[in-house]
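Sequence design from tokenized structure. All designs in this work follow the same two-part layout: the structure record, then the generated sequence. An example of the structure record is given first.
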């Protein structure tokens, strides 16, 4: 499973569809279901953005959740770096970064590293740094 943080407003619904009209009419939640998938859309209105720990608790029993974003939360991170983006590495400023996946010919020595095109190496890094959900929630200060 994956969990992605969006830094901007997004809408998975389409204007003109019944589900969109329901939300526009004030429905706080709209559940769309078919034989292939379901999606629950929840309007937060003026409520604060959900915390990472609360979002993780929404998953059913899963083997693995890959988290994209949530940079300010205290959890182990694998930095994905492409030199062509022209941005600096977040490591070592972010001490929660435990490994690096990049296209660098000479990556920093202080982190475990896999080349961005080495699928097995990337998978090995993910599995080496994966942690049980309860441990992740405790790290986020959200146990209980």
């Amino acid at each position: 499973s994956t969990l992605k943080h969006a830094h901007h407003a997004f809408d998975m619904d389409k204007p003109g569809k019944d589900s969109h009209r329901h939300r526009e009419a004030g429905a706080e939640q709209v559940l769309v279901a078919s034989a292939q998938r379901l999606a629950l859309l929840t309007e937060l209105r003026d409520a604060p953005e959900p915390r990472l720990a609360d979002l993780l608790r929404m998953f059913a029993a899963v083997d693995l959740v890959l988290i994209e974003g949530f940079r300010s939360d205290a959890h182990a991170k694998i930095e994905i770096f492409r030199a062509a983006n022209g941005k600096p590495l977040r490591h070592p400023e972010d001490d929660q970064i435990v490994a690096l996946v990049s296209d660098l010919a000479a990556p920093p020595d202080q982190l475990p590293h896999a080349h961005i095109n080495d699928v097995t190496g990337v998978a090995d890094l993910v599995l080496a740094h994966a942690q049980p959900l309860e441990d992740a929630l405790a790290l986020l200060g959200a146990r209980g």
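DSSP finds four helices and seven strands in the chain. We note this feature because it recurs in several other targets discussed in the main text.
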